[in-house]
Design goal:
about 280 residues, alpha+beta, 6-stranded antiparallel sheet, 18 strands, about 40% strand, elongated
Amino acid sequence: MDVTILSLVDGQPSCGPRTQVLACADALSAGGAEAKLTDAVDDAGIDAVLQADNPIVVAADSDSQIRAVLRRAVRIAAPAPSARGTDLPDDRTVADLPPLGVLPLAQTPELVPALGLPDTPETVANAVLAKTVKRTDLLRNDGGGVTVHGIRLGGGDRPWRGKIALDDAILTDGTESLIVGVVANADGYGTIDGLPLCDPDPTDAKLNIAIATPVAKRGLFRRKTHIEVRRGAGRAVAITPVDDVPFIEDGITGELGRKRTWWMERAAAGWYVDVNNP
């Protein structure tokens, strides 16, 4: 069996395999597999690995690197709307994505503990060799992206406003000040600055949404402000900001200035896991 260990390189060739990559390759070889070490500097390089049909281990420091591979996997696997077949269930727009192993490098991506994935070169290699796969939900959005962990909107010193619709329910109509909002798939986005927002489960076929807004109430001697959290879970959420709002999505920062919709793809992502802890 050939196994590809994929390292994502930011725009230029790497200086050589990392220690963790070499250790994982040795463990794969000891188990009878041939490890192929590959660098990808762009989407075309990722696509070539995905289309080779070998088991893949992504050597990663962050969630964003894992997301980059899944985004290309979705592009390859998703049919055009006009070519959608009858074999896809109603709650899926993409076929099962190929399973991935995740090999932590200098830093451990937050997804590794959140999804209970193996975290050493030897245990990652053993999981791939055992071919034990755990499938989890994945979020897609109408901007062509995917989200594995979650999105945080706002959360800084500047309140923001936006209309947020979860399936058929309106959580806020855009007239209220919001402190923070999250769309979560895994638990790393469930708590922000000590404030519990939601308790997502990446295997329940639902995305979780929560917003925190300041609410003022008149007390006996003065007005008091407390934080109200509204929560919900469903298939899709549409967020239309009134003004640009900063966000963090799987570790990537940006600003959202237009309506964006995220929806759930049930059990679309696959991960190699410890055979004793699937």
